[in-house]
């Protein structure tokens, strides 16, 4: 392949869209399955596909960062104001999981009376905590 056409770029967008299988994409652009697979092996096509994927990844990361504050505010609201202990526990577990901490076991949750009276869940300190303790 010497250069990419509009059809090639359209196929790249369909591939990145994730809604259609490769067979469905080939059919939708009236090309054989083998043609699509040949394009996927072509260095120029692969490079464009990877470049477009990197652009989309960058765009999605930027959108996530712009909305991270809202997500944290909502998580804090659920954690501090929810009367549903399971909702608070889910926020805590999900946050710790995403931060790379090991999963908590039921025995790690202490002071059950504090949960009921203050809407809080005690989380034991983990070595290498953010505060450096």
Protein described:
This protein has 133 residues and is mainly α. It folds into two domains: 1-67; 82-126, no CATH class. Helix content is 66%, strand content 0%. The longest helix is centred in the middle third of the chain and has 39 residues, at 43-81. The N and C termini lie far apart (58 Å).
Average pLDDT confidence is 79
Please state the CA-atom Rg, rounded to the nearest Å. Answer: 24 Å
What is the number of domains?
2
Tell me, what's the shape? elongated
Roughly how many Å apart are the termini? 58 Å
Low-confidence stretches: 113-122, 128-133
Give the topology string: H per helix, E per strand.
HHHHHH
Q: In percent, how much strand structure appears in the residues?
A: under 5%
Structural class: mainly alpha
Instruction: Provide the helix percentage.
Output: 55-70%
Count the E strands.
Answer: 0
Features:
133 residues, mainly alpha, 2 domains, 66% helix
């Amino acid at each position: 392949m010497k250069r990419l056409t509009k059809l090639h770029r359209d196929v790249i967008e369909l591939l990145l869209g994730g809604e259609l299988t490769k067979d469905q994409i080939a059919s939708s652009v009236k090309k054989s399955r083998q043609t699509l697979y040949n394009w996927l092996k072509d260095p120029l096509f692969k490079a464009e596909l990877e470049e477009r994927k990197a652009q989309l990844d960058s765009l999605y990361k930027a959108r996530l960062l712009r909305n991270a504050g809202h997500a944290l505010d909502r998580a804090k609201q659920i954690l501090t104001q929810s009367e549903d202990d399971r909702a608070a526990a889910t926020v805590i577990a999900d946050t710790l999981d995403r931060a790379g901490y090991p999963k908590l076991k039921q025995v790690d949750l202490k002071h059950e009376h504090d949960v009921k009276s203050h809407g809080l869940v005690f989380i034991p300190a983990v070595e290498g905590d953010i505060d450096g303790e």
